[in-house]
Amino acid sequence: MGDLLPEDTATWRSVETILRDILIAYGYHEIRVPIVERTELFKRSIGEVTDIVAKEMYTFNDRNDVSLTLRPEATAGIVRAGITHGLLHNRRQKLWSTGPMFRYEKPQKGRYRQFHQFDVEALGFAGPDIDAELIIVSSRIWRELGIDTVELELNSLGTPESRVRYREALQGYFEQFPDALDADSRDRLQRNPMRILDSKNPAMEELIAGAPVITDYLDTESAEHFATLRRLLDQAGIGYRINPRLVRGLDYYTRTVFEWVTGRLGAQGAICSGGRYDGLVEQLGGRSVPAIGWAIGLERLVELYKVCGGEQVSGAPDVYVVAVGDAVVEPAFKLVEQLRDATHGLIIDMNCGGGSFKSQMKRADRSGAQIAVILGEAEVADQTVGIKPLRNADAGQFSVGWDELGATLVKFFA
Length: 414
Ligand code: ATP
Ligand code: MG
Description:
By secondary structure, the chain is of the alpha+beta class. The protein has helices at about 5-25, 40-45, 50-55, 75-85, 130-145, 160-175, 185-190, 205-210, 220-235, 280-285, 300-305, 325-340, 355-365, 375-380, 400-410; strands at about 30, 35-40, 60, 65-70, 95-100, 115-125, 150-155, 240, 255-260, 270-275, 290-295, 320-325, 350, 370-375, 385-390, 400. Helices cover about 40% and strands about 20% of the residues.
C-alpha cells in the first residue's frame, strides 16, 4: 500500500477533476459508499471461484465476530446501497464514485494492494444504448487527457442460460488436455471453466487460444444486443477489437464486457474495465434491474497520462509573500487577506516563521512561486510593496501601492 506524496497530488487532482467534470456533464451523480462491507456481499456478487474472492480479499472479524472485508471493487457496495435505500424502485440511476480499493496481490508496477478506482454505474438500463454511452464517455476521457494509445477490447458473454451450453463445450475441450492444465485451471475446470480463459499463466496461452469461443454460443437477443452496440460504436467513430476470450475476473457479468488496454505501461495494460451485470441486483436481494458499469484504475491512468505527455501540475504557489521585521507581520497579514479576496484563485503563500530578507527570498525561490511580494518596514510606512519576478533573470524589482496590488497581480497572471 503506497503513499501519494505532495509532488504528485496536484497532478492526480487535476486528472480526477477532469473525470468528475465529464461524468457530471453526462448527467451522472456521485455516490459515496463505505470502504468496508460484510464479507458475504463480495462473496455473493463477485463469486467464490474468482481470484478476488479466493485469494485477494482483506477479510477480518470485527469485535462482534462479524466478518468484514475491505472493498476490492465498488460495484457490489453501490448495488447494496441502491437496494438499502430503495434507489432502484422504478427509477434509473446514473452514478459515479471514486476511492481506494484493496486487493491482496503481488505488488509490482501498476499493481498495488491499495489502489484507486474511478467507477461509473448505470442501473435500470437494459441497453445497448447505455452500453454505448458508457464506452463513449470513457473515450472522451482519453481525449481530454491527451491519451491516444488505448484500444478497446469488446466481447459479449450472453446470458446465464446461454452460457450453460458454452460451459459444457469449454469443459469438454479442456478435459481433453488434463496434463496441460495448471493447478488453478484444474480447480476451475468443474466449478467455473470460463475462469480458465482469464488465466494469466503464459504456459496456458496456447491451450486457451484453441478453446471454443463464446460468441458462437450467444442467444438471439444477446447477439442482437451486441450487434446494435457495435453499430453505435461504429457510428461514434470508436474502434474496437472483438476479443472472444475476454471474460473478465468477476462472475456477475452478462452480455457486454469490455476493457481499454494500452501497450505503454508494460505488463499491467488494462486501464478501464467494465461490463453489464443484469442479474446482480436480484442476486443481492433487490428486484430484477439491468445494469452496466466500468472502473478506471487511477494509478495506471495517471501513469499513462504522464507517459502521453500530460502536464504535470506542480502545485507551486503563484505568489510568495516575504515579510521582514516583527512590526511587519501584522500589517502583512491584513494586506495578504485583502489580496486573497481580490485575486480569487491565485495561490498565495505567506512566509511564516520570520527570517532575514535573504533567507525568506531563498524560501520564495524554493517554493516555485512566480513572484515574490516583498514587505519591509519602509514599504509598510509608505503603503507599498516590492514585486520581484522570480523566474525571469532580466526582470527587475519594482514597487506598487497597496491599492493597486490586487489588480497588478491579476494582470500578471491573466
Ligand atoms: P487485472 O487484469 O489487471 O488484474 P482486473 O480485471 O482485476 O485487472 P478490475 O477488477 O476490472 O481489474 O478493476 C478495474 C481496473 O482497476 C483495472 O482495469 C485496473 O486498471 C485497475 N486495477 C485492478 N487491480 C489493480 C491493482 N491491484 N492495482 C492497481 N490497479 C488495479
Ligand atoms: Mg485482477
